[in-house]
Write a structure and sequence with these properties.
The complex is a heterodimer. By secondary structure, chain A is α+β, with helices and mostly antiparallel strands. The model of chain A is unreliable at 122-126 and 395-403 (pLDDT under 50). By secondary structure, chain B is mostly beta strands. Chain B has one domain (5-245): Lipoprotein localisation LolA/LolB/LppX (outer membrane lipoprotein receptor (LolB), chain A, Clam). The chains are: A alpha+beta, B mainly beta.
Chain lengths: 851, 255
């Protein structure tokens, strides 16, 4: 402790900027981990809160996929002796037309019986949330909103609130306001409650309910109730606890969590190299001081402890600041994460409040401190090996790590071979991860050798460009390979991550674009949902004939999506007019099965086609029997074909629309696929379709290219999350360069002094530092691109094997690479300005004094 | 079969009882006699409902009420006339002697009838101080009665009788106290308790003899814990009119 106070504290005070950079490296690593995870947890927690509050006292929920079930089922449920209360529900997310309010979660409930399940006003202790319940029921435009929402939008009882409905934008009347606690707090307070039967009409449900919520008779266990209901209803219904919905959402959030983990790991690795660099140079600079300490009797262990202690302190400070940064990051990104989940899966919840869990804070402190300590270990070990005699002799330099490079290269080669061998051996998950890890270790171990080699290669080029400054810069890099390689490694990791993220984005974009062209290719889409993925609004099947009879329409296919659970996995079932789809998708990518046979059998109701990701994630194979739950019982269909499809992340099953009609008795359609006759002007047809159905106000007619743009923008929106990560990666890179140069000029103060003494101009010194910064950036960029190119291969493997079962074609992101290169070079130059100014203004006297 | 049903608290004092002296009766006999005297084959009235909520805001509704059949096996239609927002909303109640009533509501704006999900019978009846349970016709056998004493209410001598639901009968109330006038067997007050707590008090006033039946033309309900009050005034009361059974169906609600 005394050493820390007397020695370390003085050093930290003297080198505030460098200390700041070192701490910043920990802050970014720990902060990213805490922030991104907390944002995810906040969204998940908000979703679970929403589920809990909506479920209220319900112990079980009965569903039959997204299609819901006929009203008559309610009577069957209520007649089960084990059921004390059963209330129906309709749930829809609608676009609020209030500026800046986003989506509104609307629950359609039967107010006459619903209070036995849900509390509408927990805090007030009274149940007058509606002025007149009879008027509320009698007027289908009645709406209850939360107090928060009302306050934000200056609404009071009898105010009008416009909302999107199946009949277009419609004015609703606020007839009740509930407290913002409890149920009123769900969905960030953006909650509306309306009468069940009015909701049926507004959301095009016909005479169906989305689900029924059940309270069991006193004394019964959940399992007893579930068993009784399953027996009474048959196999086509899902009887689950409300928490099950939370679990489904959690599994969708898994992709986010894994990508956050990978990024956090990269951020911490990058920070590790920055810290290593800072400590390494500190040891070099302080060798005289260490020699004195050793001469005065300090043991090697004490010196080791001194540097590790510094590592712990910097780690703790960095972690603490990282938690604050993480808090800021979580607040900034949670809304975005929620919007992405809503857009992609139609499930989401607005996180009202983001709090950091104690677990994350502890993890951040452990990770931050561990990173700092690991970064300090090698320099600390070297410090403990300082020979006091050599350290106190002027002009003597002790080489502490001779021969290390050769060993490192050998180990790197072993890991590289391991990576290649494991990658070549097969598709086993274990081997894949061993290969990935081996590749990263090999790449990191090779950085010093490659940096040195490339610096030597660049020396003649630099001499040609700037004879004095270029040579000085190249020599500086060559003479301090360890300092250079640590910064280059940090840059390489950051840029590698940017490249692989960009690569996934480009690969997804191209693969999805190709899929839309070959498999999702009608000329026009007529959808009841603006974003094409929500099933809150539906068309009646009767529209099919009217659409088909329009001039210029060659064919109309129906699409009805339905979230279902097959063998415990939540997947999407798509009912299509398979024959029509087959006629237009001959070019689509087939994974297994014969195109004609699979479509014929599916159209005849003798089989189902599954997506490739269903096959991979659910371990299904050709010929497997799929027990598909329907309100009429299980529909058992064999897998007759596997196709590449990007409709759903968890997997998709395709059946014929006629089969769906037979078993689900749900005569509704989400999307009509309209194929035009050759030569028909599509814009004109779009206008005529809109004019043909004036009563269908909520109808979105999209041209193929518009849908393509929309789907691709959804894909980009998810990847947009990673742009936040890219920003942080660039920041880490800049930090690395700035830190490196700060160390470099301190290290070379004597050199600069001598140069000034022999007549070098400040401009030349400045130019030399700039050259050094640009060369480091160049080395980082070159190695980062190479690292990213290989990392992309592994990332695509992760997407296929673990994320979504999606096979994406390898596409190197040249566009992003070309954008990032100048950004990094400019950032490096900017990062060098302070250091170059400091070096250029250094006087000979100061330099000699320092020495 | 000694099965007399008890009308709901609301309905009880819409009808009156003949002032016949009953000698040496016990509590059960008094209640039975009171209900017996209030029986009619059918009933019609126009009602005005004033609800004063805890914020002292008053809302007024008018309805027309028709009932066909005896207690425990009757059918009733209640059709709202005013205000404009609820005009033509109608409620069909089919009472059964052995189970809870079935109720449907016709909402003109939705052009459909809907079954009232009457699972929690303590729910208040559309914002009034009556609960759905108060509207049910109850089997007299499902309650036990005790004559707790005699009392003067507004200067009139009354029997004070306590009723408690028998085992197996579910009710939001643990006990009720009835004040039945000695002179004409009309119920003038009904206090409903949850354990020791008074939940609802119903006072019946303005008692007139109509068609041979003593009828309370005003019923005032107060929900003590909410500080709210509901006043029901009956007008154009008629008994034993000829009514068609078909007028009490889901189809008839749509008229």
């Amino acid at each position: 402790m005394i050493l820390l106070r007397l020695i370390s504290w003085q050093y930290i005070r003297k080198h505030r900027l460098r200390t700041l950079f070192t701490i910043a490296a920990v802050v970014l690593g720990a902060g990213t981990f805490v922030g991104m995870h907390s944002a995810g947890v906040a969204v998940l927690s908000a979703f679970n809160d929403t589920v809990d509050h909506i479920a209220g006292k319900a112990q079980l929920q009965i569903t039959a996929g997204d299609s819901g079930f006929p009203e008559e089922v309610l009577g069957r449920i209520q007649s089960v002796p084990e059921v004390a209360t059963a209330v129906p529900l309709i749930e829809a997310v609608v676009q609020s037309t209030k500026k800046g309010e986003g989506n509104l979660l609307v629950l359609g409930v039967d107010m006459t019986g619903d209070r036995s399940i849900r509390d509408y006003d927990l805090d007030s202790g009274e149940d007058d949330i509606v002025d007149d319940p009879l008027v509320f029921l009698a007027q289908p435009d009645s709406l209850i909103v939360s107090a928060d929402f009302a306050q934000r939008n200056r609404l009071s009882v009898d105010s009008k609130l416009p909302m999107d409905t199946m009949e277009g934008e419609k004015q609703f009347t606020v007839r009740g306001i509930m407290r913002s606690a409890g149920l009123g707090s769900v969905f960030g307070g953006n909650l509306g409650i309306m009468d069940l039967y009015a909701a049926q009409k507004v959301f095009g449900r016909g005479r169906r309910f989305d689900r029924v919520e059940v309270r069991l008779a006193p004394g019964l266990s959940i399992d007893q109730g579930r068993a009784a209901l399953r027996q009474a209803l048959g196999s086509g219904f899902q009887v689950d606890t409300p928490a099950t919905r939370g679990h489904q959402f959690e599994s969708l959030m898994q992709v986010y969590s894994v990508s956050v983990n990978i990024f956090s790991l990269f951020a911490l690795f990058t920070g590790l190299f920055i810290i290593y660099n800072a400590f390494n140079i500190a040891v070099t600079q302080r060798r005289t001081e260490i020699g004195i300490l050793r001469a005065l009797g300090a043991t090697r262990r004490q010196i080791l402890a001194l540097f590790l202690g510094e590592g712990v302190i910097l780690g703790l400070v960095g972690s603490a600041l990282g938690i604050l940064f993480g808090m800021f990051l979580a607040r900034a990104t949670s809304g975005y994460v929620s919007d992405v989940m809503q857009a992609l899966y139609g499930m989401g919840a607005r996180a009202q409040d983001v709090t950091l869990s104690r677990g994350f804070m502890v993890a951040a402190v452990i990770l931050g401190t561990a990173t700092s300590v690991i970064g300090a270990i090698l320099p600390a070990r070297n410090a403990s090996r300082v020979d006091p005699v050599k350290a106190l002799q002027r002009g003597q330099y002790q080489v502490l790590s001779a021969g290390e490079n050769r060993n490192r290269r050998i180990v790197a080669a072993i890991f590289a071979l391991s990576a290649i061998a494991c990658a070549a051996l097969g598709r086993s998950h274990g081997l894949f991860y061993v290969s990935y890890l081996s590749f990263i270790i090999a790449a990191l171990l090779l950085v010093p050798a490659l940096s040195l080699w490339m610096s030597r290669m660049l020396r003649p080029v630099l001499r040609k460009v700037r004879p004095v400054e270029g040579v000085l810069a190249a020599d500086s890099l060559i003479q301090a390979p360890r300092r250079t390689s640590a910064t280059v490694a940090a840059l390489m990791l950051s840029l590698g991550l940017i490249v692989s993220i960009g690569g996934i984005s480009r690969s997804s974009y191209n693969s999805i674009a190709q899929w839309i062209d070959t498999a999702f290719n009608p000329d026009l889409f007529v959808s009841a949902s603006q974003n094409l993925v929500e099933h809150s609004f539906r068309f009646p099947d009767s529209m099919t004939r009217a659409l088909s009879s329009l001039d210029g329409v060659a064919d109309v296919g129906r699409m009805r999506g339905n979230k279902i659970s097959v063998k415990g996995a939540s997947v999407v079932l798509y009912a299509l007019d398979i024959e029509k789809v087959a006629a237009h998708t001959r070019e689509r990518s087939i994974v297994a099965g014969d195109f004609d046979r699979m479509n014929r059998l599916t159209a005849e109701g003798k089989g189902a086609i599954i997506s490739e990701n269903y096959e991979l994630l659910q371990h299904a194979a050709m010929g497997d029997i799929l027990p598909i739950p329907s309100p009429s019982g299980f529909v058992n269909l064999p897998v007759v074909g596997i196709v590449r499809d990007y409709t759903n992340q968890s997997g998709t099953i395709f059946i014929d629309y006629s089969v769906y009609q037979r078993y689900w008795e749900d005569p509704t359609v989400d999307i009509f696929e309209v194929y035009a006759k050759p030569g028909t002007p599509l814009e004109d047809l779009k206008t005529r379709i809109q004019a043909q159905f004036p009563e269908q106000h909520r109808m979105f007619v999209y041209l193929n290219r518009e849908v393509k743009n929309r789907v691709l923008s959804n894909s980009n929106q998810f990847l947009g999350l990673t742009y936040i990560q890219i920003f942080i990666a660039v920041l880490v890179a800049v930090l690395g360069v700035a830190n490196n140069l700060s160390i470099s000029i301190t290290d070379r103060r004597r050199e600069f002094g001598i140069l000034r003494a022999i007549g070098a101009l400040g401009l030349q010194i400045r130019g030399s530092i700039w050259c050094e910064a640009l060369t480091i950036a160049f080395l980082g960029v070159a190695l980062g691109m190479a690292f990213g190119a290989l990392d992309l291969f592994y990332e695509l493997g992760l997407v296929r094997n673990d994320y979504a079962g999606l096979t994406l074609d390898y596409q190197f992101p040249f566009g992003m690479a070309l954008t990032v290169i100048p950004v990094i070079l400019v950032a490096a130059w900017l990062a060098s300005i302070a250091s170059s100014e400091s070096a250029a203004r250094s006087s000979l006297r100061e330099a000699l004094e320092y020495e | 079969m000694n099965r007399w049903s008890v009308t709901c608290a609301l309905a009880i004092l819409f009808t009156g009882l003949w002032p016949t002296q009953v000698q040496g009766e016990d509590a059960r006999q008094i209640v039975t006699e009171a209900l017996n005297r209030a029986r009619s084959k059918s009933e019609h009235y126009e009602g005005t409902l004033e609800v004063m909520n805890p914020k002292q805001k008053v809302s007024t509704k008018r309805w027309i009420y028709d009932r066909l059949g005896a207690y425990g096996d009757s059918k009733a239609v209640l059709r709202f006339e005013a205000p404009a927002e609820v005009k033509d909303v109608a409620l069909l109640m089919i009472n059964h002697p052995d189970r809870a009533s079935d109720q449907w509501m016709w909402i003109p704006a939705e052009e459909r009838d809907r079954r009232i999900a009457l699972q929690d019978r303590s729910t208040r009846f559309f914002g009034t101080d009556f609960s759905f349970e108060d509207l049910e016709e109850r089997d007299v056998d499902q309650y036990s009665y005790t004559l707790v004493g005699e009392d003067n209410l507004d200067g009139v001598a009354c029997w004070k009788i306590e009723s408690r639901p028998r085992k197996g009968k579910s009710s939001q109330y643990t006990s009720s106290f009835w004040w039945i006038r000695k002179d004409n067997y009309v119920i003038t007050r009904l206090d409903n308790y949850d354990k020791e707590k008074l939940v609802r008090r119903i006072n019946y006033k303005d008692i007139k003899l109509i068609g041979g039946i003593w009828t309370a033309l005003t019923a005032e309900v107060a929900e003590t814990q909410r500080n709210s009050r509901t006043l029901l005034k009956l007008d154009k009361v008629e008994y034993n009119l000829a009514m068609k059974d078909t007028a009490f169906s889901r189809e008839a609600l749509r008229r």
